[in-house]
Amino acid sequence: MKYNPASFWGKVVSDAMREEKIVIDRIDINGEEVPHPSLSGMFQRSVGELKGQVSDWRRGIDGRDESVHVVEFRDKYEIHLDHYDPYKKPVHHLLFDSPKYGALTAIAVSFIAISLFRKLSGR
Q1: Domains of the chain: which residue ranges?
Q2: Which tens digits make up the pLDDT trace of 34-65?
């Protein structure tokens, strides 16, 4: 069965909005390769928390703060819904969808602010 990339990934986006996490094997049960997210015209290349993936892909959801995040591995795709699209609300995304990196960012910003304050106040 040949897949239409836009139809295939359109259904995945729709499913991701209802389910917490979706895992799709790159080769289906019939031995067919599922289409790559880039072929759908729906996703843009992105970055994500390092988990041994090949790449990350995202699609914002029109009229909403959320985005669908596709994590591409050599043998599968893991798909989930981010509460905040990193392109629309990067700080919210770091704090709520990537709390480990959000905490690191907050610490770094605090450290820089304290250093600047001390330098400017002559301490």
Answers
A1: 5-121
A2: 999 999 999 999 888 888 899 999 999 889 98
